[in-house]
């Protein structure tokens, strides 16, 4: 008896079906983009590890030039420079191994010399940058820039 003229009581069945169809189309369009982002995430994680190594070695070089005690020498050929023993001094929270190829878990990264990179061998190479390849779980290998300290 108290009806308001011109007001609707709710949505019609057709309006609800149209909305559901539109949402289904949007979901079907967006879903393939989000299905396999793990390789991109793996590359981003390896970039983070490479950045941490680069930052650590650059800080080490600057402290060494300033004469601060406790710095680590980074010298030798690329196999020595890109070794687990040298690089794990500059990063924590991840496991470094030597070798190539993707690892089987998300917290382990292979380190190896980059082909065609400079070398830290020789006393005159203080401040020279060389490259080490970092490969993590899925994703692409990335390069970490390592600053040589010389003697």
TrEMBL record:
TM helices/strands, residue ranges: 12-31
InterPro entries per the UniProt record, alphabetical: N_methyl_site (IPR012902), Pilin-like (IPR045584)
Domain of life: Bacteria
Pfam families linked to this entry: N_methyl
Keywords from the UniProt entry: Membrane, Transmembrane, Transmembrane helix
NCBIfam families reported for this sequence: IV_pilin_GFxxxE
Name of the protein in question: Type II secretion system protein
Organism: Noviherbaspirillum album
Species classification: Bacteria, Pseudomonadati, Pseudomonadota, Betaproteobacteria, Burkholderiales
């Amino acid at each position: 008896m108290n009806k308001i003229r011109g007001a609707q009581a709710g949505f019609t069945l057709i309006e609800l079906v149209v909305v559901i169809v539109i949402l289904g189309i949007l979901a079907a369009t967006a879903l393939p983009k989000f299905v396999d982002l793990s390789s991109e995430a793996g590359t981003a994680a390896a970039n983070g590890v490479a950045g941490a190594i680069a930052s650590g070695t650059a800080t080490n070089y600057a402290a060494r030039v300033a004469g601060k005690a406790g710095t680590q020498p980074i010298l030798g050929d690329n196999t020595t420079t890109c070794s687990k023993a040298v690089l794990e001094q500059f990063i924590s929270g991840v496991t470094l191994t030597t070798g190539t190829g993707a690892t089987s878990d998300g917290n382990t990264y292979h380190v190896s010399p980059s082909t065609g990179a400079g070398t830290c061998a020789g006393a005159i190479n203080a401040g020279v940058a060389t490259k080490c390849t970092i490969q993590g779980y899925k994703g692409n290998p990335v390069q970490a820039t390592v600053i040589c300290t010389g003697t």
